[in-house]
Amino acid sequence: xxxxxxxxxxxxxxxxxxxxxxxxxxxxxxxxxxxxxxxxxxxxxxxxxxxxxxxxxxxxxxxxxxxxxxxxxxxxxxxxxxxxxxxxxxxxxxxxxxxxxxxxxxxxxxxxxxxxxxxxxxxxxxxxxxxxxxxxxxxxxxxxxxxxxxxxxxxxxxxxxxxxxxxxxxxxxxxxxxxxxxxxxxxxxxxxxxxxxxxxxxxxxxxxxxxxxxxxxxxxxxxxxxxxxxxxxxxxxxxxxxxxxxxxxxxxxxxxxxxxxxxxxxxxxxxxxxxxxxxxxxxxxxxxxxxxxxxxxxxxxxxxxxxxxxxxxxxxxxxxxxxxxxxxxxxxxxxxxxxxxxxxxxxxxxxxxxxxxxxxxxxxxxxxxxxxxxxxxxxxxxxxxxxxxxxxxxxxxxxxxxxxxxxxxxxxxxxxxxxxxxxxxxxxxxxxxxxxxxxxxxxxxxxxxxxxxxxxxxxxxxxxxxxxxxxxxxxxxxxxxxxxxxxxx
Length: 489
Hints:
Elements: H1 4-9, E1 11-17, H2 21-33, E2 39-42, H3 51-54, H4 66-69, H5 85-98, E3 105-106, E4 109-117, E5 122-129, E6 134-145, E7 169-171, E8 186-190, H6 194-204, E9 209-214, E10 220-223, H7 228-236, H8 239-263, H9 265-280, H10 286-289, E11 302-305, H11 308-314, E12 318-322, E13 325-329, E14 332-335, E15 340-342, E16 345-348, E17 361-364, E18 367-368, E19 376-377, E20 381-382, E21 388-390, H12 399-420, E22 425-427, E23 436-437, H13 445-448, E24 457-458, H14 469-478, E25 486-488
Parallel strand pairs: 1-2, 1-6, 2-3, 4-17, 6-21, 7-16, 8-9, 8-16, 9-12, 10-11
Antiparallel strand pairs: 4-5, 5-6, 13-14, 14-15, 17-18, 19-20, 22-25, 23-24
Helix pairs in contact: 2-5, 2-12, 6-11, 7-8, 8-9, 12-14
């Protein structure tokens, strides 16, 4: 429960919203680079971890290697490079505990709105907390949003015809509970993205059979769960040195492969499909089930550690059906071709609902901010919105790579303002040649459903999102904070 009297009088130099992977990282960078600044982390839930605490579905794991998903300042020392959810959650909580960040977190503090006053040069943040949902207000000079990019309230579930007829259980992975029993049962997983390819092989271990029902295929790439070279280097070199060597190797390879996909899509496509063919054999219908209509990296690739999805298909415990749904029936799902998939449990791995800044309402000097009409500055701030940044990771690489750079830049910005006596920094576009472009150029359904309400990127720097770690190091770690676009007052 909120201590209303105390909360209303609380003022901080920085308020961080969200105690997940990004928020804990932000706390560390603030303590290290701005040691004189007071801060608190507001967490709407009752525990640390964000995504890694929220999702409880079978097999939950990273779809990036932990040498790049891990923090720059804390080496990943586990044997598995592709880690499961509980190990990642432990890593985040250990980081918070070891650095005293956990003492800065205010749990059950759900941020509802934030209003900026130029006169006072501060944010007033309205929070709702406790079972009674009491309202209280905190103030800060700088607001740092680390609340992710999707709604924690629930995932995306389309309206399936006849869903009310089905006599079994229907569950979205984001709402997974411990009482869901699938041992010895027939399971249909609807979807073909990262969640689906994680669920299918894990559930296939004990289910009677698991069918992955997809409307269209996704590019799927197998990778060893353990990085043999990384484990070897860790035995011979200091932990930090080994970690950074492997981190940079993986970063450079990821950048190379992304550029290959964009510049020579047919070559990349054949490489990916060659791997699938090798895993499933020449007789499997790869053309139907694993060959998308789009080019690689027009949507995010799906990673399967040790080829576990392919193994479960090959041993007959799982299968892939590529078709569209006509209707749910009492016993399962009838497809457009008239065939029926019988099921005891249906899992709708149909995606997330994207939202801006955790759904928080924002106003500047009494005027509500429509983020869909703002330009995104350096992938972290918003045109005409003062003293507010958000931590948002890469779509084509590990989330934390960009978040680490964002945290460093925010600290540079705060220190720069301190040295020169500024109270307010606002990115403003005065260049008529900057054209608005969509925030992301992905064709994925979850992006296309939300693109209209998302901030825009510009056609050139510093409004352009390059999704490139090397370029961002130059821009965010080495570039000027007084670049002529950021206006200081």
